[in-house]
Amino acid sequence: MLKMLAATxxxxxxxxxxxxxxxxxxxxxxxxxxxxxxxxxxxEDGTTFEENAMKKARESSAFADMVAMADDxxxxxxxxxxxxxxxxxxxxxxxxxxxxxIAKLLKAMExxxxxxxxxxxxxxxxxxxxxxxxxxxxxxxxxxxxxSGSNGFGYDPVFIPExxxxxxAELTDEEKNAIxxxxxxxxxxxxxxxxxxxxxDDFEFV
Length: 206
Hints:
By secondary structure, the protein is of the alpha/beta class. The protein has one domain: Alpha-Beta Complex (Maf protein). The chain has helices at residues 11-20, 49-64, 98-108, 173-179, 181-199, and strands spanning 2-6, 28-32, 67-77, 116-127, 130-143, 159-161. It has a six-stranded mixed beta sheet. Helix 1 links the parallel strand 1 (2-6) and strand 2 (28-32). The longest helix has 19 residues, at 181-199. The protein is globular and about 55 Å long.
């Protein structure tokens, strides 16, 4: 069985990873960072989602000496010139809550009629510090005037995906995973892993 490190401290992301990779649970064991003693902080200083994802995956896999999967994701708002973008998690400053970030976003969007936005997720796999593959998923939508829903996390309460009248936070986990940026990126990851498993009796990195 392949042991793969989920290189994130975000428990919500780990849960989504596990749900999306559920059909590979007999082949992949997802290891979380709390199982790796003295895991170092990785500075996300890339200029794109892809750069940050690959850096986290490379450094995590090198430190843990195992396959590592990392993602960098965020909200890109057309009227804000792409903000908050790669700074989505730090948009309202260090220690800010999801509510703080949403409040800042809605304040910046006051009076704005063009509310187009998209969520982007870059998911990367690396082994022993080497790049393996990167996959990108996107979902277009709009920014709501007010938050709604209690499911999900991050900016989910104010993001209405294209083709829906509900926010991400009003959808079930299954509904969200079926269309989300992370769901799309992770299904591409799962497809890559399935192909590797089909080529050999076990994953080539084990």
